[in-house]
Amino acid sequence: PGRPSPAPPPGARDPTPLAIVESDVGDALETSEREGVADEDAETSVRALVQLTDGDVETGDEVEPVYTEELREPGAGIREPASQDWDGYRFEPV
Questions:
Q1: Which of 58, 70, 80, 92 could make a disulfide contact with 53, Cβ separation 3.0–4.6 Å?
Q2: pLDDT for 29-70, tens place per residue?
């Protein structure tokens, strides 16, 4: 009692490795989005919480997105399988 279980929740095969990824989007910003902001004051990076393909990533490691058709196993867990049909990206070490 009082201690969290290290076991993954029902329906999860393994804990999902997560990371905060920072990307520079300066080249993608249109001139109109930067209008009235000096270049040295413009924030051109974004951060996102992402799912990794492998938990063997350290702070500062470079990663790249990899398309995945099935981010979750639709039949796992207690939710309606159709509601768990998600595609998207995981990130893997470069």
A1: 92
A2: 665 555 665 656 567 889 999 999 988 899 999 999 999 988
Spatial CB neighbours of 70, under 8 Å, sequence gap ≥ 6: 85, 86, 87
Among 43, 52, 8, residue whose Cα is nearest residue 23 = 43
Domain ranges of the chain: 18-24+50-93
Helix/strand/coil for 51 = strand
List % helix, strand, coil for the chain (3-state, nearest 5): 15, 30, 55
Burial of 91 (C-beta count, 10 Å sphere; 0-12/13-18/19+): buried
